[in-house]
Amino acid sequence: MTALAAGALVVTGCATSVGPPEVTFYGDGHTVNAKPVLHCDVLVRDCDKYPDAAVTLKVRPGAPVQISVPAAIRDTPWLVNVQYADAKGNLNVKQQYFSPGTRLSYTATPDGPQGQLVVVEVQQLGAAYA
After folding, report:
1. Theoretical Cys-Cys bridge with 63: which of 15, 59, 87, 108, CB 3.0 to 4.6 Å?
2. Distance CA 56, CA 66 (A)
3. Is 52 exposed, middle or buried, given 0-12, 13-18 or 19+ CB atoms closer than 10 A?
4. Closest alpha carbon to 81 in 50, 37, 113, 44
5. Nearest-angstrom CA–CA distance, 103 and 108
6. Among 47, 38, 27, which Cα is nearest to 107's?
């Protein structure tokens, strides 16, 4: 039997819309929605922290996590940070950048069937990063 491990899913963002955007994560037949743990204005000068906004989604080793972002994130530069443990337990990091208007979804995967996703983080980039 394979033990389930938790993947912390965190959203940080900078937006021009009112209120923080929500990102949907899907894996192993379960869906969770997450608001940002940090939400800033487009110039990254005025930020609100929501430390309790991080969510957990349990997925089996080798299982992917699908990410769906709203148009408010798609229309800006954004990226996905993925941390996963390989079969030997070594922590690895992958990062995928998306240009404005190009993607509403992404599938985060560990490398190999024994890899375990540990953290999947969506980061919306503000003008300070663009």
Report:
1. 59
2. 14
3. exposed
4. 37
5. 14
6. 27
Residues 20 and 3: their CA atoms lie apart, in Å, by 34
9, 28 in Cβ contact below 8 A?
no
The first and second tokens of residue 34, run together, are 């997450």
Residue 53: phi and psi, rounded to 5, are -80, -15
pLDDT in tens, 19-44: 688 999 999 999 999 988 888 877 77
Residue ranges in 68-117 assigned as alpha helix (H): 71-74
Cα distance between residue 62 and residue 31, in whole Å = 17
Q: Does pTM surpass 0.90?
A: no
80 forms beta bridges with 96, 122
